[in-house]
Write a sequence for this structure.
């Protein structure tokens, strides 16, 4: 072996596969199966981080997800960097590059450690009390400096180049945790034929079993039993085993979020392989076998590198072959630490002493330790530790019969293993809204009343003995399968031998000599919260743990207090003289461990963030240089610049061409709804303001739709194709809303009507041909429709053929020119467009985009719902009383229109604005005010809704909503600007061009 | 155009609307573009549904099921809504037969042949591939052969229809096709 701390036997190490990695630029060796923590420990390296606030040197304390100290930054280049990863969970691969965090210039020498000397200044509440003002200093001085000095790793600064997958899954039984209890549950549930998913955050199956060596299950060595169980599960096709998969959230109705890490452990991830997969699982039954987390003991100097949890030392030894020290001191209030002492002693370490808080511990572990002649000191405590970057000694004290602690001696050591007993991992149970129960005898919270279809088993339930855990697993798996509708068979109880379970524990600060301050006794290691901070919070008057938590930040670090919550609670309860349940327990929130944004975003990034809807003519427009704008999910051609043209120039040209010749416009995105049935006209009567019964077949009408409040929600042209069939158009973005609104009324208010609604938006491509030459352009392609003005007047619709394709041909105009809208089946839209384009070009016509369309309609004073209306505008406000069918008994919104407020004289009214400077195009949204410099706090008269430079009129035009605007025609108002003084304009009629409409009827 | 849905043959590349013209390999799963079809949405009072289906020689499907006769399929979309798929050559006959057989009963028949496009997803991995974006339980025990439903694939509405254990027919509005194709292709890489 390469190092004095590396041992030749371990359950998770492949000694045939040595690997090299670098930590802070220095190269180290490890093996396949190592974590960064185990590999560094095997090289004798304990110092792995600096603490959050005081920059104290820190070593690894735990062996799993709960690790608070050893946080690393892993960078793979090209934007692939992840901060704050726990060294105990980062799997080694050849060439791995990791760095420590929160230190400058180096981990061994960190200038920030000055904070540690100044620690008395930096107690809880320091920031709240110190940085009171001035207010501006927060943003520019205090916060940047504090953030720089205190903190964790750095967030990646480049876009994440990795991809992330998503998978929905359903199962009968989801088991979280692949330790003894979880695997036993999987076995019995799997044998019933139920669909089972087992998720475990680790790379190997077995959980705590992987650290066991002497235990036997059913006469087999524990590792053989484990291998056999996993093989049996792998052979079941309906059992899905997900390793490296963390269940991070437990949501409503047994919906669980899992993140599977796919490539982070690979030196060379396969091309295209996603980095992580988010599993969204709906389970009929959930079994939580999430184990337990060992509690640190709280004494001065308990955070020095080399001080770690006893169970962690045992895991590093038995799983990874890494010896955490050669002369170890054990400090415990629980039996389980004895097994750690025994294992380390048998691996060659010298156990300097087992310091036990308890007066008279009894049990097989204690007997076995004594049999090996390990020195056991009962009623003793550690009162202080020594050493700078690594522990080298600890001061011990004896607890007298009266509870007083007397210092007795200083013991040399290079590692101190502590155990305050185990805290069940009830995070997911608690997230499921289950109610916890406080077990006063053992001072732990265990799952109490379930809120969902789940159960907890094994250590997660407080069952620490292996035999009972396995038994609970078998029973829970069978029961869950039965509840999910499967027949299960009983599995004979297992017999477990040589197990040394946890059976006691201690929470809070350990006793110390009278008069000695608590010193640097850490409760929350990651947020640097000490016993004294919690006591001072209680002295400040905070009585609830929720307040103590926020004042001290205990439990608020990235580890969410996995190792600290119970100790913090016990210290607070002690200081307040109350019981633990009385002080309360903070809420467990998802995620259990941090989850990447990538896995939550999944494939919803870039082009696939939202559907990008394109019309059948999109490709043509793209080919002809169109620039597009987003309209809802649609891409619409915004304008078609010719060589060197700006948006402004292109739009002026497009408008001029349409007015003088003609233009082609892709209107395919318009919403379309086919309304069919004997009651179709009656339905329209009730949904639109105007009257539809008398609309003749072959004719169209402009319709306005109100919501219940009487405000305009949509508009469009509706054509009657047959007595019982209407073709309704809606605005592009209003289409889904209008259909939902219609269905809502049809199903809930008018179920007696025989009428049905079908969305046909995407059935039809729509080509608007607008301009004086529109008829000439269409004529050659239309064989069976008479386009002449008499046969097909403005606002009519015909069915027939164009280019041999069926068409619904509307004579309508949104430009004020002679116009047609050609509806053809989408699949033929491009072909028809190209045919029309070839003809249009001959006539000097152009293709125009949405911007020119907006200008042309504004010249005619045609509104765009959502631009010239804002959801508080009535037809009367728009000057569109003519659109109200006054004689109709009712329509949606009618009742609201007669409310007094809707008839007030000062309601906003739709008007035109003529700026005094014809070149001044006001901002859309600019305030309309009565004087150039209105007094602060005075109300505006209204606002500009649309404004353009009009080629037709040779000047700017604007539309606005102005209080009592129609009565103000001729008045001068002022339009505010962002970059200067408000400028004057005259209120005019909103129709700027061809007021008589002669061009429409050409 | 092909004679049946099932044996669509390869063409090169993607069409204007984003549907591949050729069979597309998505890992071990294959995606076949469906040929052009006549499609109609039938809306009818529940009590008249059987009569309408019979006009086309079909039985009215139960909720969440499809019924098939030769090249005609009617897919349940809702209590009073059905999607009819047929050969394009039968379009007029479908319209005429229904009108003749309904005897004045009210109904709505709307041509959506071009609104929807469709593809077949086939292979042992098809179900899992769909489950990358569809939150339904597609296990054959829950979603058996012959079942059809409207659902979501990520943010796109679509109609899913299980033709056999490893083959799904998927209908969606045409402009959502590139989005669904993109997701399926990326998810297939991830599988």
């Amino acid at each position: 072996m390469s190092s004095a701390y590396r041992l030749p036997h371990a359950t998770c190490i492949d000694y045939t596969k040595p690997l090299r990695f670098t930590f802070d630029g220095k190269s180290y060796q490890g093996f396949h199966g190592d974590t960064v923590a185990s590999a560094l420990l095997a090289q004798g390296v304990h110092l792995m981080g600096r603490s959050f606030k005081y920059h104290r040197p820190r070593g690894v304390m735990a062996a799993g997800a709960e690790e608070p100290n050893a946080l690393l930054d892993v960078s793979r280049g090209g934007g692939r960097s992840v901060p704050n990863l726990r060294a105990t969970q980062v799997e080694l691969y050849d060439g791995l590059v990791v760095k420590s965090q929160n230190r400058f210039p180096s981990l061994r020498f960190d200038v920030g450690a000055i904070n540690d000397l100044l620690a008395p200044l930096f107690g809880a509440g320091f920031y709240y009390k110190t940085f009171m003002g001035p207010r501006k200093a927060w943003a520019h001085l205090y916060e940047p400096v504090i953030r720089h000095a205190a903190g964790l790793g750095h967030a990646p600064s480049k876009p994440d180049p990795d991809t992330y997958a998503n998978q929905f899954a359903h199962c009968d039984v989801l088991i979280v945790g692949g330790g003894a209890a979880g695997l036993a549950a999987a076995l019995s549930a799997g044998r019933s034929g139920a669909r089972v998913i087992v998720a475990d955050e680790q790379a190997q199956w077995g959980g705590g079993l992987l650290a066991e060596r002497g235990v036997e299950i059913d006469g087999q060595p524990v590792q053989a039993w484990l291998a056999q169980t996993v093989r049996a599960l792998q052979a079941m096709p309906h059992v899905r085993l997900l390793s490296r998969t963390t269940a991070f959230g437990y949501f409503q109705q047994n919906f669980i979020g899992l993140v599977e890490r796919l490539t982070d452990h690979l030196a060379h991830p396969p091309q295209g392989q996603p980095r992580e997969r988010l599993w969204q699982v709906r389970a009929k039954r959930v079994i939580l076998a999430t184990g337990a987390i060992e509690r640190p003991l709280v004494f001065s100097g308990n955070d020095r590198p080399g001080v770690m949890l006893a169970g962690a030392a045992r895991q590093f030894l038995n799983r990874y072959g890494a010896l955490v020290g050669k002369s170890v001191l054990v400090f415990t209030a629980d039996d389980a630490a004895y097994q750690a002492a025994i294992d380390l002693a048998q691996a060659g370490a010298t156990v300097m002493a087992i310091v036990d808080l308890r007066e008279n511990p009894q049990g097989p572990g204690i007997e076995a330790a004594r049999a090996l002649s390990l020195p056991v000191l009962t009623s003793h405590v550690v009162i202080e530790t020594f050493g700078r970057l690594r522990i080298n000694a600890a001061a011990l004290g004896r607890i007298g019969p009266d509870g007083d602690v007397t210092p007795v001696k200083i013991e040399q050591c290079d590692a101190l293993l502590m155990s305050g007993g185990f805290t069940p991992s009830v995070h997911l149970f608690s997230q499921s809204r289950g109610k916890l129960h406080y077990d006063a005898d053992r001072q732990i919270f265990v799952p109490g009343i379930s809120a969902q279809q789940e159960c907890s088993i094994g250590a997660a339930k407080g069952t620490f003995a292996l035999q009972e855990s396995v038994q609970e697993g078998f029973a829970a798996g069978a029961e869950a399968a039965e509840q999910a509708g499967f027949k299960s068979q009983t599995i004979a109880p297992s017999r477990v031998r040589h197990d040394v379970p946890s059976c006691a524990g201690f929470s809070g600060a350990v006793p110390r000599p009278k008069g000695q301050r608590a010193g640097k006794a850490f409760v929350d290691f990651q947020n640097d919260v000490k016993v004294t901070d919690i006591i001072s919070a209680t002295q400040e008057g905070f009585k609830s743990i929720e307040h103590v938590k926020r004042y001290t930040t205990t439990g608020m670090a990235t580890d969410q207090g996995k190792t600290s919550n119970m100790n913090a609670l016990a210290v607070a309860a002690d200081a307040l003289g109350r019981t633990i349940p009385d002080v309360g327990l903070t809420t467990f929130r998802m995620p259990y461990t941090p989850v990447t944004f990538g896995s939550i975003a999944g494939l919803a990034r870039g082009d696939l963030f939202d559907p990008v809807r394109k019309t059948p003519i999109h490709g043509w427009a793209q080919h002809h240089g169109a620039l597009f704008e987003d309209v809802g999910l649609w891409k619409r051609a915004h304008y078609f610049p010719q060589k060197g043209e700006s948006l402004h120039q292109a739009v002026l040209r497009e408008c001029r061409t349409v007015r003088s010749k003609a233009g082609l416009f892709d209107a395919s995105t318009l919403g379309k709804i086919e309304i069919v049935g004997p009651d179709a006209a009656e339905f329209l009567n009730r949904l639109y303001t105007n009257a539809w019964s008398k609309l003749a077949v072959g004719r169209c009408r402009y319709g306005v739709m109100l919501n219940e409040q009487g405000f305009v929600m949509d508009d469009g042209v509706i054509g009657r194709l047959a007595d019982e069939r209407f073709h309704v158009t809606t605005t592009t973005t209003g289409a889904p809303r209008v259909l939902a609104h219609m269905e809502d009324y049809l199903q809930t208010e008018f179920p007696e009507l025989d009428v049905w609604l079908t969305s046909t938006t995407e059935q039809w491509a729509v080509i608007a041909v607008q301009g004086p030459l529109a008829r000439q352009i269409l004529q050659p392609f239309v064989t069976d429709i008479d386009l002449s003005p008499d046969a097909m007047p403005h606002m009519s619709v015909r069915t027939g053929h164009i280019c041999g394709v069926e068409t619904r041909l509307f004579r309508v105009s949104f430009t004020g020119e002679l116009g047609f809208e050609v509806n053809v089946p989408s699949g033929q839209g491009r072909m028809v467009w190209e045919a029309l384009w070839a003809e249009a070009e001959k006539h000097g016509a152009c293709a125009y985009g949405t911007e020119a369309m907006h200008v042309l309609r504004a010249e005619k004073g045609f509104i765009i719902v959502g631009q010239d209306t804002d959801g508080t505008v009535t037809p009367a406000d728009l000057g569109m009383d003519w659109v109200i069918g006054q004689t109709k008994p009712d329509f949606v919104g009618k009742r609201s229109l007669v409310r007094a407020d809707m008839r007030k004289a000062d309601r906003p009214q739709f008007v035109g604005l003529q700026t005094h400077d014809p070149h001044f195009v006001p901002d859309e949204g600019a305030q309309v005010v009565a004087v150039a410099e209105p007094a602060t706090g005075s109300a505006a008269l209204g606002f500009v809704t649309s404004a353009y430079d009009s080629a037709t009129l040779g000047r700017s035009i604007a539309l606005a909503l102005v209080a009592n605007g129609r009565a103000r025609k001729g008045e001068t108002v002022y339009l505010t600007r962002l970059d200067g003084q408000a400028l004057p304009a005259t209120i005019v009629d909103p129709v700027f061009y061809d007021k008589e409409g002669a061009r429409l009827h050409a | 155009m092909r004679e049946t849905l099932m044996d669509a043959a390869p063409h090169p590349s993607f069409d204007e609307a984003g549907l591949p013209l050729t069979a597309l390999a998505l890992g071990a799963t294959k995606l076949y573009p469906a040929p052009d079809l006549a499609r109609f949405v039938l809306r009818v009072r529940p009590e008249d549904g059987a009569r309408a289906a019979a006009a086309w020689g079909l039985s009215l499907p139960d909720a969440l099921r499809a019924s098939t006769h030769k090249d005609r399929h009617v897919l349940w979309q809702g209590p009073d809504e059905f999607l009819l798929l047929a050969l394009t050559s039968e379009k007029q006959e479908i319209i005429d037969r229904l009108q003749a057989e309904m005897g004045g009963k009210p109904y709505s028949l709307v041509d959506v042949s071009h609104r929807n496009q469709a593809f077949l997803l086939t292979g042992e991995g098809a179900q899992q591939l769909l489950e990358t974006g569809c939150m339904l339980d597609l296990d054959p025990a829950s979603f058996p052969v012959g079942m059809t439903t409207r659902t979501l694939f990520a943010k796109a509405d679509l109609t899913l229809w299980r033709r056999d254990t490893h083959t799904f027919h998927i209908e969606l509005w045409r402009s959502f096709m590139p989005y669904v194709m993109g997701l399926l292709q990326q998810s297939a890489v991830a599988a």
